[in-house]
Design brief:
alpha+beta; Cytochrome Bc1 Complex, Chain A, domain 1; five-stranded mixed sheet; 9 helices
Length: 259
């Protein structure tokens, strides 16, 4: 695919609509629709670009093509308009499924590190309680997720018979019950989390390095060694408390069967 055709495809007006998915797993259909359900569409958006690599001729060629591309490159990223509340998405399949996305309230490096540490606590406990102990469904996941360049926690449940309102109740109850778990974290556990996060600070390839550079340029948070080293149990507890208090910022997407 040429650069021109790739840019044209990316700028196609159809990008604002949920991508049609051939997946039959309901939760994957919700995941594909989540970005457009979370970020309000923008009629005329500008472009931001980053380059990471040592092929100077190719860099200059791509830079030239981008400079000639309408609507042009933006100097600064505009904050996305986040959509909140509950919406439904028509999906193939009869299973009940729910995605709960909790955006990071204050987007900076320290809070992102706290969010990543918090996800290390929540992920195994969510699976243990709802998949193993209560057998709620066969898709049970709680993890850190970046949706349309917004960092947050993503809770996902899929069940063959449990209604989405009940699934949502399980998610809310879990988050409340984790207050005691977060408060009981030991310094040794925090140190282990920091070691894990430090390994994730370095970009794996040029694409990830370019993304990190662009985010840094635009004032968006990045996971870095200084932020990880500055982590405290108090900062993680405070973040969890704030995520619970600001439930109006949660984005909940549920599946309804296509008629």
């Amino acid at each position: 695919m040429t650069v021109h055709s790739a840019l044209k495809a990316l700028h196609d007006e159809g990008q604002l609509n949920p991508v049609a998915s051939a997946q039959t797993i309901v939760i994957r259909q919700l995941l594909a629709a989540l970005p457009t359900q979370f970020i309000a569409p923008v009629a005329d958006g500008d472009w931001l670009a980053a380059w990471c690599g040592d092929q100077t001729p190719l860099h200059q060629r791509v830079e030239y093509l981008l400079s000639d591309f309408s609507p042009g490159l933006a100097t600064h990223a505009q904050p996305p308009r986040l959509q909140h509340g509950i919406t439904s998405v028509s999906c193939q399949g009869s299973d009940r499924a729910l995605l709960l996305f909790i955006p990071l309230p204050q987007a900076d490096d320290i809070n992102l590190a706290a969010l990543r540490a918090l996800s290390l606590l929540l992920e195994p406990r969510f699976f243990q309680r709802l998949r193993v102990d209560q057998q709620i469904g066969y898709v049970v996941s709680a993890r850190y997720q970046r949706v349309a360049d917004v960092d947050g926690l993503l809770l996902a449940l899929q069940s063959p018979q449990i209604p989405w309102r009940v699934l949502l109740g399980h998610c809310k109850r879990f988050m409340r019950e984790m207050v005691a778990e977060v408060a009981s974290v030991t310094p040794q556990t925090l140190a282990a989390w920091q070691m894990t996060l430090l390994e994730q600070c370095e970009p794996k390839d040029n694409a990830e390095a370019a993304t990190q550079g662009l985010r840094q340029q635009q004032g968006l948070p990045n996971l870095n060694r200084n932020a990880v080293a500055s982590l405290t149990l108090t900062s993680i507890q405070q973040l969890h408390t704030r995520l619970l208090r600001e439930r109006r910022r949660w984005r909940i997407v549920v599946a309804i069967e296509k008629s």
